[in-house]
Amino acid sequence: MMYFSMELVKGASLASVLKQHGKSPESRALEIVRQVLEALRIAHAAGIVHRDIKPDNLMITAQGMVKVADLGLSLSDENDEDAYTTQAGTLMGTPNYMAPEQGRDAHKVDLRADLYAVGATLYHLVCGVVPFPGETPMEVVIKASSQPLKFPEPGPSPGMRALIATLMAKRPEDRPQSADAALELIAKLRRSKVTANPEQHPDATNAIARARARRWRRSLRRALWGTAVAIGVVVIAAFIALMLSRSQWGIRQREIESLTADHRFHEAVTALDAFQPGLFGARKVDIDPLRAEVEKAWDAWAVPLAAPVFDDFHKLLTQKKVAAAYEALSKNLKEEWRSPAVRHDQEECERQFEEAMSTVERLDTARARELPPEILKRIAEIWSGFTITPPASLEVHEGLARFTGTGTAVGGSVFAPMGGLAGRQHRPTLVVNARIVSPAAADDSDAWSLVVSATRTLSVSRQGLVLHETGKPDRQLVTVMAGWVSFRLRRTANDLEVRIGPSESAEWIALGAGATGQLSLRWHLADAHAAEVRMRPQLARASE
After folding, report:
1. Would 6 be classed as within a structural domain?
2. What is the DSSP string of 452-518?
3. Dihedrals phi, psi of 410, to nearest 5 degrees
4. 207: helix, strand or coil
5. CA–CA separation, 93 vs 267, rounded Å?
6. Which pLDDT band holds residue 40 (cuts at 50, 70, 90)?
7. Helix axis angle, 340-361 relative to 322-332, nearest 10°?
8. Same domain, yes or no, for 374 and 448?
9. Are 514 and 495 in contact (CB under 8 A)?
10. What is the pLDDT of residues 90-107, one digit of tens each?
11. How distant is the alpha carbon of residue 126 from its chain centre?
């Protein structure tokens, strides 16, 4: 189910404030616009043009903070020619606050259109009306493009008029060229209001200082009274909470003890983990010892029950019955037995299973049946997601893909994560085993390649795995072992990485390919030659 989540702003829109109270004092209007420009400064730095700044889209919190909302019409540097929202020549925005160039073509505007809209909003704030009223949107757009800006009388101060006129200049190049430049204009206007006409107001600075001192003394008295009242409330509340906490924490402890006695250890630990330290007066020092006792009792109960399952796993693994070992572990190890000690033993079994899988995958096709059915199913899903050209150049049987001739393949979601032995989800990792099959008189030009990017390719040949990069020498990553090349691919948030061999200490090598979920393959093999490849998801442990 798709859904969209937004912050709930507890306050009102600037449009509703204007409707209720009418025009604003210049000092308040400047503060509102200053906050809008601070928000736009960040948006513009990220390559985003809002394109619909207006009182309806400016939210005022109860504390007086301004929040810029509704980026539904925004234009981003990352948009593909803005394909999803605009077309050339399309009218988008609100005409009363729209820059002339946006009225002509919203597709080609830049950040200066937002500064015009800020100026039009400031005009509405201090004048109580929109700059260019009209009966239809087109009439408003034409007036904004062709008529001079006029102010009602008596209107705003000369400094305010100059600021609005600069922000609402017809040509973008005549406006401030950034939100920072507009903020500097506001700062200058604020400073000029204090220092203007010093001959007529020689004591203005002293008067301001005296007013600030009076406000500070009044604020201090209110703060002292408020602090005294707050302290009294806190003391009373703390006393009540302390009285309640002892009984509530006691109830919780008895609940945990009851769950433990019934061998419902997982529920007991879950209840403790969900318990917030400090709630009902419980401290972390209260919770940790109880959790340790629960886990100790869980281990004492679960380890003997899980031991036969682990014994069967190791016995089957010793007999090289990998599929049967997997089934014994995944089906017979019950969830309620998974205490901390049992989880540790299970992760060790998973590691041994991975090593055994690497051995099986390097064996001949006849041994492919040793792979567990669940993994064979996932391998089949991986190959079914590829588009093969030509289709006859790839055959998949029992999890083993056989490539012949010359061809290409583009894959689907080959890195879709697969649940671990206990149903967990892990970072998408792919285990790849590949080899070139040919007569003794081999052609060294045979190759099976994984296309990482336009400039990088991983190629499997008889010499092993080689990283080819345009403009750089080839890099030999691994040699052939018993005829096979083994490596792992991992998709991270920002890249594709490769690791050679099953060793946990082996280094992951970043390929600089980005985090796409697809693989592209290509191969070129002589007549009667083939490449055999098996790709499967890795059952990684939670720590990976």
Report:
1. no
2. -SSSEEEEEETTEEEEEETTS--EEEE--BTTBEEEEEEE-SS-EEEEESS-TTPPEEE----S-S-
3. -115, 125
4. helix
5. 55
6. very high
7. 160
8. yes
9. yes
10. 456 688 999 998 888 777
11. 41
What is the distance between the alpha carbons of residues 315 and 334, in angstroms, rounded to a whole number? Answer: 19
Answer for the pair 141, 98: CB distance below 8 angstroms, yes or no: yes
Q: What percent of the chain has pLDDT over 90?
A: 20
Distance CA 340, CA 295 (A): 7
What is the C-alpha to C-alpha distance for residues 451 and 470, in angstroms, rounded to an integer?
A: 12
- Please report the pLDDT score of residue 269 as a whole number: 80
At 408, is the pLDDT very low, low, confident or very high (cuts 50, 70, 90)? very high
Q: Is the per-residue pLDDT at 426 higher than 60?
A: no
Please tell me whether residue 116 adopts helix, strand or coil conformation.
helix
CATH code of the domain containing 443: 2.60.120
Residue 398 and residue 492 in one domain: yes
Are 148 and 249 contained in the same domain? Answer: no
Helix axes of 14-21 and 111-127: crossing angle, nearest 10 degrees: 20
Instruction: Identify the pLDDT of residue 425.
Output: 40
Distance between CA 450 and CA 457 in Å, rounded?
Answer: 6
In degrees, to the nearest 5, what angle opens at C-alpha 396 toward C-alphas 395 and 402?
Answer: 55
- The label of the residue with tokens 């893909």 reads 401
Q: What is the CA radius of gyration of the chain?
A: 35
Instruction: Indicate whether 298 pLDDT > 80.
Output: yes
43: Cβ contacts below 8 Å, ≥ 6 apart: 49, 50, 68, 74
Tokens of 446: 């045979």
Note down the domain range covering 32: 11-196
How many domains does the structure of the chain reveal?
Answer: 3
| Residue 421: predicted pLDDT | 43
> CB neighbours of 251 closer than 8 A, spacing ≥ 6?
none
pLDDT at 360: 53
DSSP-derived pairing of the beta strands 429-437 and 530-537: antiparallel
Residues forming a β-bridge with 433? 486, 534
For tokens 């096709």, the residue is: 365
pLDDT given for residue 118 in this prediction: 96
The answer to whether residue 2 sits within a structural domain is: no
Phi-psi map region of 320: left, alpha, beta (phi>0 left; psi -120 to 50 alpha) = left
Q: What residue has token string 């009306």?
A: 129
Helix (H) or strand (E) holding 211: helix 204-261
What percent of the chain is modeled with pLDDT above 70? 72
CATH number reported for the structural domain that contains residue 23 in this entry: 1.10.510.10
Choose between 277 and 102: higher pLDDT: 102
Tens digit of pLDDT for each residue in 460-517?
888 788 888 888 888 888 777 667 788 888 877 677 888 775 555 567 788 776 555 5
